[in-house]
Design brief:
It is a single chain. This protein is α/β, with parallel strands linked by helices. It has 2 domains: 142 residues, Aspartate/ornithine carbamoyltransferase (Rossmann fold), CATH 3.40.50.1370; 153 residues, Rossmann fold (3-Layer(aba) Sandwich). Helix content is 35%, strand content 15%. α1 packs across α10. The mean pLDDT is 94. Bound molecules: N-carbamoyl-L-aspartate (NCD). The site of N-carbamoyl-L-aspartate has 10 residues, from α2 and α6.
């Protein structure tokens, strides 16, 4: 299997083979991150621009470090301090970045479809770092990587995604990667945030509004933050009520398999979607997700640049 795409815009359009190639390539980069010398020259002389029009901590730092570890030059660009605030269009911004010979543009944007729009004319490789409520492909990949690494497989696993599904790009990217690689996905949360129609995504997706049902038999529980910034109307009475009905707490852990993984893409709202005791407890892999995110982003940049995993030796 060889990689022949110019951009990474979503996971919906990737084949199971392409997803597996990224995950396998990421294993090499994870092993590299455990060595004393963590840098390789794969992107030497290339320029990576992080164009973040929406706030981010983990994703931006992770892409920056991934590019640095691959020996690229990296420029960080945030909307607040840029001409986007002076009325410049995204298209003009990108043309200016290309005039500076940008080879990769990592775009985070509040508009769904913004990276797809840029990819229609951009000469640089476009990587979607999260577009509105649409997709967050590298998050979907790092979550899938973490599950596969911990459980040894994806096929036949039961993954529950709990929380604000409607507004979550993380949920959508996870969904695509998981079902394409054979997992069963249960979506759970308040009915206003988890519409029944989501079952039409794929036969392996089911929706339930009952937490106990969603937690029993789950091999993985992936918790999502309530995306207040995207909800134009209030979708439930209060965060207190959300926590009371859907928050993961020690009492509810009696419903959960003892070896179930607890995941969260961050940022965590402690005491709302998850109690601290669980976020920091033995079943939580939240910080390993962050470590794996770096490996996955290195793999994505490497493959987009034409790298072959055969160059990398054994992980
Ligand atoms: C997510 C995002 O920004 O989409 N965070 C992340 O990338 N780690 C999820 C969120 O903001 O809740």
């Amino acid at each position: 299997m060889t990689w022949n795409r110019r951009h990474l815009l979503d996971l919906q359009s990737l084949s199971p083979q392409e997803l597996t190639l990224i995950l396998d390539t990421a294993r090499h980069f994870k092993a590299l991150g455990e060595r004393p010398k963590k840098k390789v020259p794969a992107l030497l002389g290339k320029t990576v621009i992080n164009l973040f029009v929406e706030p981010s901590t983990r994703t931006r730092i992770s892409f920056e470090l991934a590019a640095v570890r691959l020996s690229a030059d990296v420029i960080n660009f945030t909307a607040e301090a840029s001409s986007l605030k002076k009325g410049e269009t995204l298209k003009d911004t990108i043309r200016n970045l290309e005039a500076l010979q940008a080879d990769f543009v990592i775009l985070r944007h509040n508009a769904s479809g913004a990276p797809h729009f840029l990819s229609r004319f951009a000469k640089a490789h476009i990587v979607n770092g999260g577009d509105g409520a649409h997709e967050h492909p590298t998050q979907g990949l790092l979550d899938t990587f973490t599950i596969r690494e911990k459980k040894g497989r994806l096929d036949g696993l039961n993954v529950t995604i709990l929380g604000d599904i409607l507004y979550s790009r993380v949920a959508r990217s996870n969904l695509w990667a998981l079902v394409k690689l054979g997992a069963n996905v249960t979506l759970c949360g308040p009915p206003t945030l988890v519409p029944k129609q989501l079952e039409s995504f794929h036969p392996n997706v089911r929706v339930t509004w009952r937490l106990e049902e969603a937690l029993r038999n789950a091999d993985v529980i992936n918790l999502l933050r309530i995306q207040h910034e995207r909800q134009r109307v209030t979708m439930f009475p209060s965060t207190g009520e959300y926590a009371a009905l859907f928050g993961l707490n020690p009492a509810r852990m009696q419903w959960v398999k003892p070896d179930a993984l607890i995941m969260h893409p961050g940022p965590i709202n402690r005491g709302i979607e998850i109690e601290s005791e669980l976020a920091d407890g033995p079943q939580s892999v939240i910080l390993e997700q962050v470590t794996n995110g770096l490996a996955v982003r290195m793999a994505v940049l490497f493959l987009l640049n034409g790298g072959r995993s055969s160059e990398l030796g054994h992980p």
